[in-house]
Design brief:
alpha/beta
Length: about 230
């Protein structure tokens, strides 16, 4: 078993994040192949990133509990389903042979289908980063990609302390409460060490205080909200 990582990364966490993610060979392969697709504004993001860290912190196998690998990009030049599908098909060829599912989505199109699927309207995103900002949990608002020369780019608007500290914090800006509770219930089954903060009861959607976390969850549901 590899040594466990400290829960609080030093110096903002970028080096610790790369160290944790480098334990997941599938994730590294997805990053490498994704870079070859040259998709505009792409990031590997969501559950596959933060859950790899959780596995490193808790000493589990690197890919434990990871359902799929979310690859987001942003291209608003053509919002047709056919244009996105062409990219998805090309990505399918690029990721052929991997022992994992890679879900490729154009975040410029999310507003076209989100309300039908989740029951709440979604304003058009202006970038991949804006899409990541809307994840149901701030803890999952992390994206990584490879740039020229193999340099890693990390997007983490809420920092990485919660990720390494195994704290799941709600982000009531778009996804409905039931999406958050369904996800956190599944996550707690896979990573019982997690501390899951309750969805805020304040109608203004203010974040819960950073003290006093508690465990909690709700029923599972299917769908494609941000993982």
């Amino acid at each position: 078993m590899p040594p466990l990582l400290p829960r609080l990364p030093p110096d903002g966490g970028a080096a610790a994040l790369r160290s944790a993610l480098s334990r997941n060979g599938v994730l590294l392969e997805v990053l490498d192949r994704a870079a070859g697709l040259d998709l505009p504004g792409w990031y590997l993001t969501g559950g596959c990133v933060v859950q790899t860290v959780w596995n490193a912190v808790t000493g589990r196998p690197p890919a434990h509990g990871i359902k799929d690998y979310d690859l987001f990009f942003f291209d608003d030049r053509d919002l047709s389903w056919e244009a996105e599908d062409a990219v998805v098909r090309a990505a399918g060829d690029a990721f052929g042979g991997l022992t994992a599912e890679v879900e490729v989505r154009n975040e410029a199109r999310v507003h076209l289908w989100y309300e039908e699927r989740f029951g709440v309207p979604c304003a058009p995103h202006g970038s991949t980063e804006a899409a990541i900002d809307s994840f149901a949990a701030t803890t999952c608002c992390v994206g990584v990609r490879l740039e020229t020369g193999g340099r890693w780019r990390v997007y983490a608007p809420h920092g990485l302390s919660d990720v390494f500290g195994l704290v799941v914090r709600p982000n009531p800006v778009l996804a409905p409460r039931e999406v958050y509770e369904a996800k956190t219930e599944r996550w707690r089954r896979q990573w019982p060490e997690l501390t899951v903060l309750d969805w805020p009861s304040d109608p203004g959607g203010r974040q819960p205080p950073r003290g006093g976390p508690r465990r909690g969850g709700g029923p599972e549901r299917a769908g494609r909200p941000a993982r």
